[in-house]
Each structure stands twice: as structure tokens, then as C-alpha cells.
Amino acid sequence: MAGTSSRSAVTTAGGTGNGAPGPGRATGRNGKQGPPPPPGRFRRGLSTHWYAWAMIAPVVAVITVIIGWPLVRGVYLTFTNANEANVERRIGVNTIEATYEFVGLENYLSVLGGSQFWDRLTWTIVWTVACVAITFTIGLVLANMLNRHVRGRALYRMALILPWAIPAFVSIFAWRMLFNERNGILNAALEGGGLSAMTWLTDPFWAKVSVIGVNVWLGVPFMLIAMLGALQSIPAEHYEAAEMDGANAWQRFWNITLPGVRSVSSTVVLLSCIWTFNMFPVIFLLTGGGPAGSTDILVTEAFKLAFQRSPRDFAESATWGVLILLLLVAFALVYRRVLRKQGEVW
């Protein structure tokens, strides 16, 4: 009797019997154990979509290695004075250890405090806005023309997409031959018409016009395809109803076409801005940034700092790269906020 009472008391105090539960066990109003807490959102998603997570894991790992590590390394170099003379290098069988030092924000203050960065940024903005605006306008006009039932429409579409199918460096070298001051076709045509030859790539103004023209020529096919797909998604009944109501061609374009392609155009304009902002091949292969650096944009200047000028300044080049990244992120955020205020979901 005494032993039974002792075991009951111990069981009640320890919480392992049928009485009060032990610490950490939830009970209901009647003293019974309640249901376990629901799993967190991450655990629910992982258990439900584990196969998708498994499939994207290799891609995430590769992107982390290819992009993540260089990005972290580049950001670190911006806080140092690393250059060609003080980084680790190997001469024969001998290895010279790195001697560069941590300098804090000195590189950022130097770049932002000089006029070169702002000159390159101003031209980069002009270059981006001009290229994207002209490309979008031409692409939309051509898409409207090819969206109609005209004879030979498939042939026209193939001809207009051709610049996109040719490798960019081949197209740029072809344009460089066309712009040649002595033997170029463009100057030959001008002289044949009684006009004087143009200094296409050696005059700062005409060099800028030339690189914008070549980049527009390369970018129109992409804009054409995107806008043509957007136009074909607009129901034809809208145009028929507007025409029956007496709307002219401009009114139909302004009130039906532009709102109908807005969701697509907002995305392709953002992509075009980012691509053009970083369009290295056109500038580098056509003019090399010349004459006298007049056509250099931010990315070509960063490239020259790291690979062409002596001594190669890796820290300053990395600083330019980080600033470019910050500018593009800021632009994307502002662009997204503007679209959200206009009712676009992006």
C-alpha cells in the first residue's frame, strides 16, 4: 500500500503517468495532449516541393561558385590597393607573395571624387537612353507592319531577324569595314553622290553616332520579336469595335495597341536598359573607346583599368564594377516601383 502510494506520487511529480504531463507537452482544456504545432513555411515547402529543390540545387551551387565568389572577391578588392605590382604572382618557380593593403573607402572616394567617372556615366546614360528609345520605336513600328496580312510577311520577318542570328563580333567587324574612312562603302557612296567623306570613327561626335547606330541595328530584332508577340496577343475584336465606333488609326494605336503591349514592353525595356548599359562588345570592337576615350562607357573603362593600362589597377577596376552593379540595382528598384504605381505587377 505504501509502495503503491509512493509510485503514484513519483509518477505525478515526474509527469510520466496519466496525470499532469511533463514539461514541453501541450494540453487541452480537459488535460489531454493537444495536436503538435504546424511545421513552418519553409519546412512545408521543402516537404511538398522537395523534388524541385533537388533539381535546382546543382544550378544554385554552380551559380554561387561562378558568380557569388567573384562578386565577393571583387567587393573585397575595392577596399584594398591591389594592382599589378603588389598582388601575388609567379615568376618561374618562384612565388612572390601579395603585399597589397586594406585602404577602406579610399577607392570609392577617389573614383567618385574624380571627373572621369562622371564623364563616363553621363555618356553611358545618353548611350543607353538613345539606344533603347530608338530600338523600341523601330521595333514597335516594324512589329505593327508585320502584324498585318501582307504578301511575303514570312520573308520580311526572317530578313529582320537576321542581324540577331549573326554573331555580334561578326556584325561589328562588318560595320567597321563599312565605316572605314578610305575604303568603306559608306564613304564611297557619299563621294559617289558628290559629298565629302565622313570621319566616322575618328571624330568624337560621329563615333558616338556610329556606335549608337550599330547597337540599334543589333537590338531591333529582339525588340521586334517581343513586340510582335505582344501585338498578336491583343484580341482583334478590340480593333473592330473601335473602328466601328469611328476611331482613326492613331486613336486605335494610342488606346488599344500601347496599353495592350505595356506588360511586355515594360519588361523588354528594362532588359534592354541593362544590356545596353553593359554593352561591351560594340564599344570595344568598333571604336576601342576612342577617339581619346570619347565613346568609353563605364564597363569599357573598368576593363581598361584591369587589363590594358599599366600598371593594371585591379582595386580601382573592381570599384567601378561595384558602382555599376549598384547603379543597375537602384535603377531596377526605381523602375519596379514606377510600374507598381501604374498598376503593373512585376
Give the tags.
346 residues; mainly alpha; 2 strands; flat; disordered N terminus
Task: Give an account of the 3D structure.
A hairpin with a 2-residue loop joins strand 1 and strand 2. This protein has helices spanning 2-14, 41-48, 50-77, 106-113, 115-146, 153-165, 168-178, 185-192, 204-232, 236-244, 249-277, 280-286, 298-307, 314-341; strands at 89-91, 94-96. The protein has 346 residues and is mainly alpha-helical. Mean pLDDT is 84; it is low at 1-28. The protein has a two-stranded antiparallel ribbon. The protein contains 14 helices and 2 strands; from the N terminus they run H-H-H-E-E-H-H-H-H-H-H-H-H-H-H-H.
Describe what is shown at a glance.
A hairpin with a 2-residue loop joins strand 1 and strand 2 (94-96).
Radius of gyration: 32 Å
Distance between the termini: 75 Å
* Helix percent band: 55-70%
Order of helices and strands: HHHEEHHHHHHHHHHH
Shape category = flat
Mean pLDDT: 84
Number of helices: 14
Regions with little confidence, pLDDT below 50 for 5+ residues: 1-28
Biggest sheet, spatial arrangement of strands: 1-2
Q: Quick one: biggest sheet?
A: 2 strands, antiparallel
Total strands: 2
Strand content: under 5%
Helix/strand layout:
Layout: H1 2-14, H2 41-48, H3 50-77, E1 89-91, E2 94-96, H4 106-113, H5 115-146, H6 153-165, H7 168-178, H8 185-192, H9 204-232, H10 236-244, H11 249-277, H12 280-286, H13 298-307, H14 314-341
Antiparallel strand pairs: 1-2
Helix pairs in contact: 5-9, 5-11, 6-9, 7-12, 9-11, 11-14, 13-14
